[in-house]
Each structure stands twice: as structure tokens, then as C-alpha cells.
Design goal:
2 domains; 9 strands; Aminoglycoside 3'-phosphotransferase, Chain: A, domain 2; globular
Length: about 350
């Protein structure tokens, strides 16, 4: 069995002993290779003695918020979605006993694909003549997810689906207010928008599984340039699928924004369909009424402002190192999100 070098967060002998008993598909010894990504969960590729590949994930070290980095939730999602048409990795095994290695962990099948974090990734992985197909596969996977009745796959207890937007507004409004002092940054537009979105919440349809962070950074793109797996399900819950759709669409190009996409973003390169073309494809696949889509897109712009405001506050408070971070650009991102949210509000009013 692998003994060195030490693997942070993993008692390798104990984990491998657990694997030997619980996952007969894997043959020891294992070679552990850390996988890089945009998240802090401790994720490693496992190469077994017969050449089979798998991936292991556990939460980061240190004290965590109660619902953060929920491995049991990720496991429930990839297990429940197997065979549904939503592309997910194979669920191999889940260990909820924190005594094994200090936290719950799960093991899934390895996927021969990579996420897209920036334009450089897109340029290297998705040639121009495959970008339309990639974008359509991206929206098709989301449509497949939202078509599922969570009760049918044993995920009806994943969360409370009613009042999703109202709860989100409360959560992110509270986040903004808590970050004002440490950030040294406030903006009256945030509160005007908050009240507008509170006063105009559309009637919610049937609750569906919402990924919560659906984007090309959480999709694995295969050798043929299309989505072959959706990953990072740790904040998924039940809610309004249109909020999930709007979040996913906001990073795609559209002439109506008045702002060009960040040239470094993964979807900024030529060859992709517009945001509204993707929305039309989603509507055709699901039959969903998109009358209120602009509301959800504006809400997500407002939410993005709150998220980045919290990040900015942590930098300003010294809780995160700002070395190499362009804080002015981060402030500009907050402003841009509020401007785009205001544009949506104007179109709705």
C-alpha cells in the first residue's frame, strides 16, 4: 500500500483498508495523485494495480460551516442521478465514518474530461467547430436534470423546495450586510434591487433539483469537446429550476448586456451560441415557461454582487491573502453585477 509521501487529510492505510473491504472494483496498491481545481475539497485521482482509475473527495481541513463541503449530499446526487440521462461519474463508495480519516469521503469513477476555467482552457480543449455542440450539450444536461421529479429517484428529501427565491434573497441580503464593515464598501443600489426582487418574486412551479453552481467550471469536457459529466454537487438542493437556468446562462455571450464578456472567461471565445439561443433550446427540451427568465437573471446578478462582496470583505479583513489579487478588478465586478441587475429590473418594470 502507498505510504509516502503523506497525503494531507487522508490516513492512507486506513482509507485503503476501507476500500479493500468496500470497493471490490479497486485493487490495491493505489497511486494517489492530487487533482487541481477551483475548490478546496481534497480531491485525488487513484490509480489501482490493474490500471483502473477513480477519484476520492473529502472536505478541507479545519473548522467548516455546518452545511459546507457536504460529501453525503454529493454522494446522494451522483448515486441518485445514475442512469437518468444526467451525465455524472459512477458512484463507487461512500464512507460516513469520520474515524477512518477525520471526515466523510466518497469515491467515484474517473472521467476522462476537464473543466473549463478560462479562455485558455477553452482554446486548448474545444476547437471552434465544436463550440456550438459543447454549448448545446451543456444546456441539454441542465434540461435533463430539471426534467426529473426528485421523488422518482429518492431525492425528494434533499431540501425544502417551496419559497426558494425568498430564502435566497434573505441569505444573500444578510451576507451583504455582514460584509459592509469589513469590506469598507456599501452601495444603495443593492438594497433597492433587493426590495424589488422581494416584491416581484414569480410564482414557483414544481420544485426540481438545482445544482446551485452550474457552469462550465463544474462540467467535464471530453475528448470530443462536449460535456461528459457534471460534478461538484455539494450545494445542490431542491428549488426553482429557472434560478438554476439563469445562473448558468449569465456567463454566456449576449449583445443585450451592453458589457462585453471578460475576455479571459471560458465562454468569451467566438463560435458559441448566444445566451438566448441556449435559453430557446432549454425551453424546447423542457417545455418550461420562460416568461420570468429576465427576473431570475437579474436576481442572479444581484446574488453575484453579494458573493463577490463577501469575498472582497475577507480580503480586506485579512482573512484571505490578497497577494496577486486585483482588488480593484474585484470591486469592478461587484459594480458590474449591480449594473446588470439594474438593467434586468428596468426590463421587468
Amino acid at each position: 500500500m502507498t505510504r509516502s509521501p503523506p497525503i494531507p487529510g487522508y490516513n492512507v492505510p486506513a482509507v485503503e483498508a476501507w476500500i479493500m473491504v468496500n470497493i471490490p472494483d479497486l485493487t490495491l496498491p493505489l497511486v494517489w495523485t492530487q487533482l487541481e481545481g477551483g475548490h478546496s475539497n481534497l480531491t485525488y485521482r487513484l490509480d489501482d494495480a490493474r490500471g483502473k482509475l477513480a477519484v476520492i473527495r473529502r472536505p478541507p481541513l479545519g473548522e467548516l460551516l455546518p452545511k459546507a463541503h457536504d460529501m453525503s449530499r454529493e454522494w446522494a446526487l451522483i448515486s441518485g442521478l445514475a442512469g437518468t440521462g444526467v451525465p455524472v461519474p459512477q458512484a463507487l463508495g461512500f464512507c460516513e465514518d469520520a474515524a477512518v480519516t477525520g471526515a466523510p469521503f466518497y469515491i467515484m469513477g474517473h472521467i476522462d474530461g476537464r473543466p473549463l476555467y478560462n479562455a485558455e482552457d477553452t482554446a486548448s480543449l474545444v476547437p471552434p467547430d465544436r463550440r456550438e455542440a459543447m454549448a448545446f450539450s451543456f444546456i441539454d444536461a441542465l434540461a435533463a436534470l430539471h426534467a426529473i421529479d426528485p421523488q422518482d429517484i429518492g431525492l425528494g428529501g434533499l431540501g425544502k423546495s417551496e419559497g426558494y427565491i425568498a430564502r435566497q434573497l434573505k441569505t444573500w441580503g444578510r451576507s451583504w450586510r455582514a460584509s459592509v464593515e469589513p469590506a469598507g464598501l456599501d452601495d444603495p443600489r443593492f438594497y433597492t434591487l433587493e426590495q424589488f426582487f422581494l416584491d416581484n418574486v414569480p410564482t414557483q412551479g414544481p420544485g426540481r433539483i438545482v445544482h446551485g453552481d452550474y457552469g462550465v467550471h463544474n462540467c467535464l469536457i471530453g475528448p470530443d469537446g462536449v460535456v461528459i459529466a457534471v460534478v461538484d454537487w455539494e450545494i445542490s438542493t431542491l428549488g426553482d429550476p429557472l434560478a438554476d437556468l439563469a445562473y448558468a446562462l449569465n456567463v454566456w455571450p449576449d449583445p443585450s448586456d451592453g458589457f462585453p464578456l471578460n475576455p479571459a472567461s471560458a465562454t468569451s471565445l467566438p463560435g458559441f451560441p448566444t445566451r438566448m439561443e441556449l435559453a430557446a433550446r432549454y425551453q424546447k427540451l423542457t417545455g418550461c415557461d420562460l416568461t420570468h427568465l429576465v427576473y431570475f437573471m437579474g436576481f442572479n446578478r444581484w446574488k453575484s454582487a453579494a458573493i463577490n462582496h463577501g469575498v472582497y470583505a475577507r480580503y480586506m479583513e485579512g482573512k484571505k491573502s490578497s497577494e496577486g489579487v486585483d482588488l480593484e478588478a474585484l470591486r469592478a465586478t461587484i459594480d458590474r453585477s449591480l449594473v446588470l441587475a439594474e438593467q434586468a429590473m428596468t426590463r421587468i418594470s
